[in-house]
Design a protein that fits this description.
The N terminus is likely disordered. The strands form three sheets. This protein has a six-stranded mixed beta sheet, covered by helices on one side. A two-stranded antiparallel ribbon has the order 7-8. Helix 8 packs across helix 9. The longest helix has 27 residues. The chain is of the alpha+beta class. The protein is 42% helix and 9% strand.
């Protein structure tokens, strides 16, 4: 697998560990049981991913017969087991079947492929036509979805807190965007570089949704996972890019801990240094830049962020200030000293991140 600097690909989940930790402490076993099993499954899968990457174990990627600029999707069914990839249930060009989960996964893979191809000229997540594989119905009451360095995996949720993880196309885009980062800047998954890694996935995940719906920056909800929370949960989504810290405030889940500015930056040893928490700061910066510019967010603001991610100058251990400086440079290089540059500078200033 080609990655920048030889760092093994990371194991990335959409539901942060702090959310599952909170659920695992619930008195109701209908809530705590699935959360504990999900944490255990994630720990096991993370270890397997690391060992496989270290040993270089990886199935050969078959590109034979794939047409450049066209998606090559395969969806598998794990049958509530954990062996990957599972049984093939839908291939590229196959008609939709009776399983809505399979159909949503297939459509979400296509929506992500389409954004990167039409907006940025990128042929799949590696830029070279990589086939897109996904497994659905993973484990029982599994409260997560993840990119494991090679494919997407979706749980069905426990039905109490989380619903089927294929329901939110931005979640599919988020996880596949981890693959784009893996094949480009390969940002280290801890501290501020890890928060940037998570933020870039939220940015492009949101853009996948906006692109699929034809929404402008003003029309978008800027929520990540808006369709994942079960009716009993007091909340709107997993995260809000428009207003970090407001996605949920629930008796069981607790309150969304994301900060919107550096004034509330969270210092913690958990979650790889708070990668799912402090990502709220660069998330909010992108939202501010995109809405300041108006129109379709994947065009000017998204282009600047994409230029930085793929430009070759973003260091693996970049901090927020490093990323911000590169967005300023990229905006000037592509658009000159105009409103794009002003919007990017203003956005970072509003979240408390210095730019040159």
């Amino acid at each position: 697998m080609t990655t920048t600097g030889g760092r093994p690909p990371v194991f990335c989940t959409i539901v942060p560990p702090h959310v599952l930790d909170r659920l695992a402490q619930a008195e109701d076993p209908r809530l705590s049981g699935p959360a504990r099993r999900t944490l255990q499954r994630d720990a096991s899968a993370r270890t397997r991913r690391h060992l496989a990457a270290t040993a270089g174990a990886r199935a050969a990627v078959a590109r034979a017969g794939t047409e450049p600029g066209k998606p090559h999707r395969t969806v598998y069914d794990a049958g509530h087991g954990t062996d990957l990839p599972g049984t093939k249930v839908r291939g590229e060009g196959d008609e939709p079947g009776a399983d809505a989960t399979v159909n949503r996964a297939y459509t979400g893979l296509g929506a992500t492929f389409e954004l990167f191809l039409t907006a940025y000229g990128r042929d799949s997540i590696d830029g070279g036509g990589l086939p897109l594989d996904a497994t659905v119905h993973y484990d029982r009451e599994y409260n997560n979805a993840f990119w494991d360095g090679e494919q997407m995996v979706f749980g069905d949720g426990d039905g109490e807190i989380f619903l089927d993880f294929t329901r939110s196309v931005d979640v599919i885009g988020h996880e596949l965007a981890h693959g784009v980062t893996q094949y480009t800047a390969n940002l280290a998954y801890y501290g501020q570089s890890g928060a940037l890694n998570e933020s870039l996935s939220d940015v492009f995940g949101s853009l996948v949704k906006q692109h699929a719906l034809g929404q402008s920056a003003a029309e978008a909800d800027w929520l990540i996972g808006a369709d994942l929370l079960a009716p009993r949960v007091t909340g709107k989504a997993l995260r809000s890019m428009k207003a970090p810290g407001t996605a949920y405030d629930d008796d069981v889940l607790g309150k969304d801990p994301q900060p919107a500015t550096m004034d509330d930056y969270v210092r913690t040893d958990r979650d790889n240094g708070g990668v799912h928490i402090n990502s709220g700061i660069p998330n909010h910066a992108f939202y501010l830049a995109a809405t300041e510019l108006g129109g379709h967010a994947w065009e000017r603001a998204g282009q600047v962020w994409y230029d930085v991610l793929t430009g070759g100058e973003l260091e693996q251990e970049a901090r927020f200030t490093d990323f911000a400086a590169l967005t300023v440079k990229a905006a000037r290089a592509r658009y000159g000293d105009g409103e794009e540059l002003d919007a990017v500078n203003k956005a970072w200033q509003q979240v408390g991140v210095r730019t040159p």
